[in-house]
């Protein structure tokens, strides 16, 4: 098997899901056989928003021939990763380079995990929601938009409310009685807005 590990391993984080890794090639005489390529082992150490350490799954990408760089796609935003590089010949892999740590920046969050509308009265509705399963960063706020839908399914004016990130419920007051409303709800990080969840509900006709 090869004798030495690739040196000078560098990671360039391109965005929240993509990084480029490059390394110095090993001297050919230390390959001790036919150079088949380089393998990059990489794994997520932890998410920076949820401090949970789960089972660590190592991923391996093989770059054929005498390449000295490769792309690592499909990374999770706002996470800490480690990687190392090994050279490969027909017999197997050489020793691993020292582990290199890198962090991906924040991304936009997934949609809120649920949106539930309860306690209809003549002029109010209560909204409850769950935070996104994948915040992909630090949540800065939620945005609620809603509009009435009339009997011919035409949409009325859209109202927009910004809600602090630590809230999980809201009572909407001053609504029209016996009216159907459509709600659009999403979460934000400093990078931008995540995908929205929609729901409809009706205020009651009379007490």
From TrEMBL:
InterPro entries from the UniProt entry: FN3_dom (IPR003961), FN3_sf (IPR036116), Ig-like_fold (IPR013783), Neural/epithelial_adhesion (IPR051170)
Keywords: Disulfide bond, Immunoglobulin domain, Repeat
Domain of life of the native organism: Eukaryota
Entry keyword Disulfide bond: yes
PROSITE patterns listed in its UniProt record: FN3
Pfam families: fn3
Keyword Ion transport: no
Any one Gene Ontology cellular component term annotated for this protein: neuron projection
Every Fibronectin type-III domain range: 5-107, 111-207
Protein name (Swiss-Prot/TrEMBL): NRCAM protein
Upper lineage: Eukaryota, Metazoa, Chordata, Craniata, Vertebrata
Gene behind this protein: Nrcam_0
